[in-house]
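BACKBONE GEOMETRY TOKENS
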Amino acid sequence: MCETLANFEDITGWRGELEAFKQTEGGRAYFSAPTIGPDITPSPGPKVKLSNLMECAELYLKHKELTRLIDLYLEWESIDASMTDLFDERHPDYRKEFSEMFKAKAEFGRWYFMKTRIPFNDLHVNTGATIAIYVRQGKFSAARSQETVDYYKADQQSSRNLFANTIELDNWDN
């Protein structure tokens, strides 16, 4: 079950709140725990509850600023698939705009972890966004759905995702 005590009705100022927290001793300690070792293998790190990741995805789908990030990602995906050169000049703002989108997605994930005070795991700062992307693409009917659970359960049973075992399949439908 997702045990979030934070209020996510108004997320105004999330970027500033995150930056301020990062500057504190507690913030530096919270975000400093390594989750990927020097050989790019995941450390055991704290598990993240799937219900938390679903809640984060719901925020991406609820708030216009975050939904815009998801839509921009989907736009990037379609442009990227059509490009043969990563530095294709058909889209002059391509690198800057999409670079900012990727950074904002990761930063929102960090802010979500900070607000919920769940153990920080950098491997999953984009997992909520990924779930939201799958909803927008029609792969999942909703962020909090059986398709989402089945996807991550299958992930854990296969070797397609090196980090799948860092997600706890908890009681997600409450």
